[in-house]
Design a protein that fits this description.
Blueprint: H1 2-12, H2 16-48, H3 53-102, H4 105-110, H5 113-155, H6 157-166, H7 172-204, H8 206-211, H9 215-267, H10 273-314, E1 335-343, E2 352-360, E3 364-368, H11 375-382, E4 390-395, E5 398-399, H12 405-409, E6 412-415, H13 426-431, H14 439-448, H15 452-457, H16 475-487, E7 493-497, H17 505-518, E8 523-527, E9 539-544, E10 547-552, H18 554-560, H19 563-571, E11 574-576, E12 583-585, H20 587-591, H21 601-608, E13 612-616, E14 621-623, E15 631-637, E16 639-644, E17 652-658, E18 662-663, E19 677-680, E20 684-690, H22 691-699, H23 702-715
Parallel strand pairs: 3-8, 3-9, 6-7, 7-8
Antiparallel strand pairs: 1-2, 1-4, 4-5, 9-10, 11-12, 13-20, 14-19, 15-18, 15-20, 16-17, 16-19
Length: about 725
């Protein structure tokens, strides 16, 4: 509690004058509240009993004037306090938001978004409630207690001393309950953050929830979570109420004691009637102040708990920070060099293992490899989202750890797989690339990205609002805006991080053509799993399990017949129609499938004609766990995840499949349920073969069936097959 008050005091320092004026206003308010019951002593003893009407009129007139002045001061005080409270919370909210802008990606990777949002909502709301409502009440009660004590001692110090001896006992209950209540509030705040995270995740995953039929199971999990929240809320609220209740019981007992003793003293003439009435009113006012203080304490404790959580964020230090004496990057960029770079996200395994490579200025290079091989980690280090654990990344010989982050990133334009668009106008989204861009430069970048004509076709042109995350635009339109935004920076280095993997074939071809035109004169670094888009690169770096295993041009790597060759073999062998709506697989590709290796060319040719094209958008379920296994899938393009235990407590991703992969082999011969769920992570094109068609095909070639069964037993593990 004291730490919370000290923290709030530190935020009040810039507003010392306002705080002082507010304190004066509170003193005026409390002074009149103290004079009001005291006036009854003079009204009764000096005016009513002696029949002194002149004095009665003066007292009443003075009280009326005092009430008017006090009311005016109170209104002004409320205005300035509302202003001060708003400034204080605004400063805290702004400080928290600004601090978040400087934290590294490592913080966001380990902190749930809902937990961060809870700091801005429930935690700040508790602090705002304390600052704007509870603080004034608490200060008034505290000042009222002090003034009341002074008045009691002036009137009858013995009775006052007897009364005040018992009053501290009223705070014993709250003091004993403080730690337990504080702990309960911390638990409640954590539960609130967890609920916020769950709700936010659920809202963003509605397409997946509906596609997988998870409504009931997710609702049941939420009910279980809310049961924990309810228990935490009940405990925190009960302890808060108990902190308020224990002083009330003590106050009631001492109030009765004062009435009894005071009445006896008045009966024996030790106290006048006016003093007795005034003493009782002042004591009641004091007990009200104590009740007010004890009712404020639980709210302040909630605010203190919220402040602790906010301070946890404010005390976070960025893992990636500028050097104390940073060195500006020289112009132009000559080369990028990775020297013995070692990096790990979780320190349980290496994501990059002693990487050595050089990217000369003006070259087009590509990083390829299986999923999880370290491709995107290379980009994270280039952008200095993370620093290497060992080795160094240098630009023109300068270690990036010595270069200002802003200087580095001003030289780079990047197009991500999923580019975030702010819920504002197209113009403002483009200007995020460069705040001082002129109208001509904005339009030039849009024209270069071949999106200007589309923008001008919109009713509001560049003032069109893109919607949340750019939801009012198609994937291709969002991607072109992202390219324009990157080009507006006029970057020396253009990074393409899976820039077209989430697009259909037509949009991908158009975007790739635009990128190839814009790449001239720039260093272009591509990260992709789709080799067809990078076979013309000046240099291709092949990563596997965090190691650089091959590098060279496309033909050189093909000639090696190692990792790159295997990836190329897996992804090649497909052809697409001009509109991208249909695909075909060649016989050589079919024959490379283990289960079809025994088929003669004529049978393969006939079988190829039985495959049909199926297209699935992103976040669509292809097969559900438990569905009949009636179809074999070959991925002509796209990316999917394989999930086990969907809808249950053991739900987890067990695999990812990409271009050239296949699943459902066992369905060709055995009518067994799917053992996993497959969901698309990008637009996908499949070539599928129905089981009944394949069985009719085998009826015409019975000698093949036994060999296929042997192949399936040899190459497949049915428990892992979806």
């Amino acid at each position: 509690m004291l730490a919370f008050l000290r923290t709030i005091g530190s935020y009040l320092r810039p507003y010392r004058l306002q705080a002082f004026l507010l304190l004066i206003g509170l003193l005026i308010d409390v002074t009149f509240d103290a004079i009001l019951p005291l006036s009854l002593k003079f009204i009764i003893d000096d005016a009513i009993i002696p029949k002194n009407y002149r004095l009665l009129g003066l007292i009443i007139g003075g009280l009326i004037i005092g009430a008017i002045v006090t009311s005016g001061v109170a209104v002004g005080r409320d205005y300035f306090y509302a202003r001060l409270g708003a400034q204080l919370i605004n400063d805290l909210r702004t400080k928290l938001f600004d601090h978040l802008q400087h934290l590294s990606l490592e913080f966001y990777a380990r902190t749930p978004t809902g937990d961060i949002m809870a700091r801005f909502t429930t935690d700040l709301a508790a602090i705002e409630n304390a600052v704007t409502l509870e603080f004034p009440c608490g200060i008034l009660c505290l000042l009222g207690l002090c003034f009341g004590t002074a008045i009691l001692f002036v009137m009858q110090w013995k009775l006052a001393l007897l009364s005040l001896i018992g009053l501290p006992l009223c705070f014993l209950g709250p003091r004993l309950l403080e730690h337990r209540t504080s702990t309960a509030n911390d638990v409640l705040k954590t539960e609130q953050a967890s609920v916020s995270t769950t709700v936010q995740e659920n809202v963003g995953a509605q397409s997946v929830v509906k596609a997988l039929g998870l409504q009931s199971s997710i609702a049941e999990k939420f009910r279980q979570q809310m049961a924990g929240y309810q228990k935490a809320a009940m405990r925190a609220n009960f302890l808060g109420y108990l902190m308020e209740r224990t002083p009330t019981i003590g106050i009631l007992a001492f109030n009765l004691m004062v009435i009894c003793i005071g009445s006896i003293l008045a009966y024996h003439g030790v106290l006048s009637i006016g003093k007795l009435v005034t003493f009782q009113l002042v004591f009641v006012s004091m007990t009200d102040s104590i009740s007010g203080l004890t009712s404020v304490i639980p709210q302040l404790m909630q605010a203190a708990s919220g402040m602790r959580r906010i301070e946890q964020i404010l005390q976070e230090q960025p893992k990636v920070a500028d050097a104390k004496s940073p060195v500006e990057l020289p112009l132009p960029m000559v080369e990028i060099h990775f020297h013995e770079v070692v990096f790990s996200y979780a320190h349980d395994h290496l994501n990059l293992d002693h990487i050595n490579l050089t990217i000369p200025r003006g070259q087009s290079v590509a990083f390829v490899g299986p999923s999880g091989s370290g491709k995107s980690t290379i980009i994270n280090l280039l952008l200095r989202f993370y620093d290497p654990d060992g080795g160094s990344v240098t630009f023109n010989g300068l270690d990036l750890r010595t270069v200002p982050q802003a200087s580095l990133r001003s030289r780079i334009g990047i197009v991500f797989q999923e580019n975030f668009l702010f819920n504002t106008s197209i113009r403002e989204n483009l200007c995020q690339g460069r705040q001082d861009a002129t109208e001509g430069e904005i339009e030039a970048a849009a024209k270069a990205a071949e999106i200007h004509d589309f923008i001008m076709s919109l009713p509001q042109g560049y003032e069109t609002v893109t919607g949340e995350r750019g939801g009012r635009l198609s994937g291709g339109e969002r991607q072109r805006l992202a390219i324009a935004r990157a080009l507006l920076r006029d970057p020396e280095i253009l990074i393409l991080d899976e820039a077209t993997s989430a697009m259909d074939t037509i949009a991908e071809a158009a975007i790739n053509q635009t990128i190839s035109q814009l790449a001239r004169g720039r260093t272009v670094i591509s990260v992709t799993h789709r080799l067809a888009s990078v076979h013309g690169a000046d240099q291709i770096f092949v990563l596997d399990r965090g190691r650089l295993v091959e590098q060279g041009r496309h033909q050189q790597l093909i000639a090696l017949k190692e990792v790159y060759y295997s990836l190329w073999e897996k992804q090649s062998g497909f052809s697409f129609s001009h509109d991208g709506l249909s695909a075909e697989i060649n016989l050589e590709k079919l024959q490379r499938l283990p289960i079809l290796q025994e088929l003669a060319p004529d049978l393969l040719s006939e079988l190829a004609g039985l495959f049909v094209t199926e297209q699935y958008p992103r976040n669509r379920v292809v097969v559900h766990e438990g569905d009949p296994g009636d179809k074999f899938f070959i991925m002509a393009r796209g990316r999917v995840e394989v999930l086990k235990g969907v809808g249950g407590n053991a739900e987890k991703q067990v695999n990812r499949l990409e271009d050239g992969d296949y699943f459902g082999e066992i369905a060709l011969l055995e009518n067994v349920p799917r053992m996993a769920t497959v969901r698309t992570l990008a637009p996908c094109v499949f070539l599928t073969l129905q089981r009944d068609l394949f069985m009719r095909f085998l009826d015409r070639a019975p000698h093949v069936r036994s060999r296929l069964e042997a192949q399936i037993s040899k190459f497949l593990a049915p428990t892992d097959n979806p």
